[in-house]
Design a protein that fits this description.
About 45% of the residues lie in helices and about 10% in strands. The protein has about 130 residues and is mainly α. The chain has a two-stranded antiparallel sheet with strand order 1-2. The structure holds zinc ion. Zinc ion binds next to helix 2.
Length: about 130
Protein backbone atom coordinates (compact mmCIF):
# COMPACT_ATOMS: atom_id res chain seq x y z
CA UNK A 1 0.00 0.00 0.00
CA UNK A 2 2.96 2.31 0.56
CA UNK A 3 3.41 2.92 -3.15
CA UNK A 4 -0.24 4.06 -3.46
CA UNK A 5 -0.26 6.40 -0.46
CA UNK A 6 0.71 9.36 -2.61
CA UNK A 7 -2.58 8.96 -4.49
CA UNK A 8 -4.77 8.60 -1.42
CA UNK A 9 -6.14 11.14 1.01
CA UNK A 10 -5.29 10.86 4.70
CA UNK A 11 -8.74 9.47 5.62
CA UNK A 12 -8.37 6.83 2.89
CA UNK A 13 -4.92 5.81 4.15
CA UNK A 14 -6.22 5.69 7.70
CA UNK A 15 -9.17 3.48 6.69
CA UNK A 16 -7.00 1.13 4.64
CA UNK A 17 -4.51 0.78 7.48
CA UNK A 18 -7.32 -0.03 9.89
CA UNK A 19 -8.84 -2.60 7.52
CA UNK A 20 -5.45 -4.18 6.91
CA UNK A 21 -4.82 -4.57 10.66
CA UNK A 22 -8.38 -5.51 11.66
CA UNK A 23 -8.59 -8.78 13.61
CA UNK A 24 -4.89 -9.47 13.31
CA UNK A 25 -2.20 -9.71 15.95
CA UNK A 26 -1.37 -6.06 15.18
CA UNK A 27 -4.40 -4.90 17.21
CA UNK A 28 -3.96 -7.41 20.02
CA UNK A 29 -6.57 -9.81 21.23
CA UNK A 30 -8.77 -10.90 24.08
CA UNK A 31 -10.00 -14.09 25.67
CA UNK A 32 -13.73 -14.88 25.73
CA UNK A 33 -15.15 -17.44 28.12
CA UNK A 34 -18.57 -19.10 28.10
CA UNK A 35 -20.51 -18.39 31.31
CA UNK A 36 -22.02 -21.89 31.29
CA UNK A 37 -19.31 -24.35 30.29
CA UNK A 38 -16.19 -22.23 30.78
CA UNK A 39 -14.99 -22.83 27.21
CA UNK A 40 -12.46 -20.19 26.20
CA UNK A 41 -11.56 -18.74 22.83
CA UNK A 42 -9.00 -16.13 21.88
CA UNK A 43 -10.07 -13.48 19.39
CA UNK A 44 -8.15 -10.68 17.73
CA UNK A 45 -9.48 -7.18 18.30
CA UNK A 46 -11.38 -5.40 15.58
CA UNK A 47 -10.54 -1.98 14.19
CA UNK A 48 -14.11 -0.58 14.48
CA UNK A 49 -13.49 1.61 11.44
CA UNK A 50 -16.76 2.51 9.79
CA UNK A 51 -15.36 1.55 6.41
CA UNK A 52 -14.20 -1.91 7.49
CA UNK A 53 -16.34 -4.67 5.97
CA UNK A 54 -15.48 -7.10 8.79
CA UNK A 55 -16.55 -4.72 11.52
CA UNK A 56 -19.62 -3.34 9.80
CA UNK A 57 -21.06 -6.65 8.61
CA UNK A 58 -22.52 -7.43 12.03
CA UNK A 59 -23.93 -3.93 12.44
CA UNK A 60 -25.38 -4.03 8.93
CA UNK A 61 -26.98 -7.43 9.50
CA UNK A 62 -28.55 -6.25 12.76
CA UNK A 63 -29.87 -3.10 11.08
CA UNK A 64 -31.30 -5.10 8.17
CA UNK A 65 -32.96 -7.60 10.51
CA UNK A 66 -34.54 -4.75 12.47
CA UNK A 67 -35.83 -3.10 9.26
CA UNK A 68 -37.21 -6.41 7.98
CA UNK A 69 -39.28 -6.72 11.16
CA UNK A 70 -40.98 -3.45 10.18
CA UNK A 71 -41.93 -4.57 6.65
CA UNK A 72 -45.43 -5.59 5.67
CA UNK A 73 -45.84 -8.83 3.67
CA UNK A 74 -46.23 -6.99 0.35
CA UNK A 75 -44.02 -6.12 -2.61
CA UNK A 76 -42.02 -2.93 -2.16
CA UNK A 77 -40.70 -0.47 -4.70
CA UNK A 78 -38.26 2.27 -3.91
CA UNK A 79 -38.58 5.32 -6.10
CA UNK A 80 -36.61 8.48 -5.64
CA UNK A 81 -37.48 11.46 -7.75
CA UNK A 82 -38.35 15.07 -7.35
CA UNK A 83 -41.56 16.74 -8.33
CA UNK A 84 -39.69 18.66 -11.03
CA UNK A 85 -38.12 15.51 -12.46
CA UNK A 86 -41.43 13.69 -12.65
CA UNK A 87 -43.12 16.65 -14.29
CA UNK A 88 -40.29 16.94 -16.82
CA UNK A 89 -40.54 13.22 -17.63
CA UNK A 90 -44.30 13.45 -18.04
CA UNK A 91 -44.02 16.48 -20.29
CA UNK A 92 -41.17 15.06 -22.35
CA UNK A 93 -42.65 11.64 -22.95
CA UNK A 94 -46.33 12.54 -22.55
CA UNK A 95 -46.97 9.29 -20.67
CA UNK A 96 -50.72 9.65 -20.93
CA UNK A 97 -50.52 9.35 -24.71
CA UNK A 98 -47.61 7.00 -25.26
CA UNK A 99 -48.88 3.53 -26.11
CA UNK A 100 -46.93 0.32 -26.16
CA UNK A 101 -47.14 -2.27 -28.92
CA UNK A 102 -49.81 -4.18 -27.00
CA UNK A 103 -52.02 -1.11 -26.68
CA UNK A 104 -51.26 -0.28 -23.08
CA UNK A 105 -50.21 3.19 -22.13
CA UNK A 106 -47.07 3.51 -20.07
CA UNK A 107 -49.12 5.20 -17.40
CA UNK A 108 -51.36 2.11 -17.19
CA UNK A 109 -48.28 -0.04 -16.79
CA UNK A 110 -47.01 2.20 -14.04
CA UNK A 111 -50.42 2.16 -12.36
CA UNK A 112 -50.42 -1.65 -12.28
CA UNK A 113 -46.94 -1.73 -10.84
CA UNK A 114 -47.34 1.18 -8.50
CA UNK A 115 -50.95 1.86 -7.57
CA UNK A 116 -50.21 5.22 -6.02
CA UNK A 117 -48.44 6.69 -9.05
CA UNK A 118 -51.63 7.95 -10.68
CA UNK A 119 -52.75 9.64 -7.47
CA UNK A 120 -49.34 11.22 -7.15
CA UNK A 121 -49.28 12.34 -10.78
CA UNK A 122 -52.75 13.84 -10.46
CA UNK A 123 -51.68 15.72 -7.35
CA UNK A 124 -49.05 17.64 -9.31
CA UNK A 125 -50.34 21.11 -10.16
CA UNK A 126 -50.58 21.65 -13.90
ZN1 LIG B 1 -12.42 -3.78 11.18
Amino acid sequence: MDRFEQYLSWPQVKALNAIERCRTVALGGHRDQCDRCGHQTISYNSCRNRHCPKCQTNARDKWLAARQQELLPVDYYHLVFSDEHLRAILEFFDLRRLTTQVGTTLLEILEKQLPYVDEFINSIPH
